[in-house]
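Example record used in the benchmark description.
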Amino acid sequence: MGFEPQIRHIIENRDMPLTGKRQTLMFSATFPKNIQELASDSLQNYIFLAVGRVGSTSENITQTILWVNEHEKRSYLLDLLSRLREGSPDYSPESLTLIFVETKKGADALEEFLYQNKHPVTSIHGDRSQREREDALKCFRSGDRKSVV
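Model output (structure tokens):
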């Protein structure tokens, strides 16, 4: 967790009010053990609240991890999304898909590629405005866009 030293530096060496004289909240989608320890070290009356089981997914989410050669990824993704769209026995027509990529540029490129291939898609990343991100999530949740990059 690359940001732990920076957080420790801010808490321990800056003009931060002492523990007990400030309110500090920490949020994380995964909250790994070393970040839990950081929170415990730096928060008074540390409370850990988890939704669902830590380290597991919700029972209504299916995770699939596939290894595909770099030059075959787009073709494989098109085939996979087409099977989902056609109602493969493993998925329903209402299924939604999250696709993770490495870069903002990669997200934009993949969104354009999928759109050009007639797939309902949107993307979310840090160069989007808050309004654009909220609109993308709304379209995704409603099923108007079946995939989000």
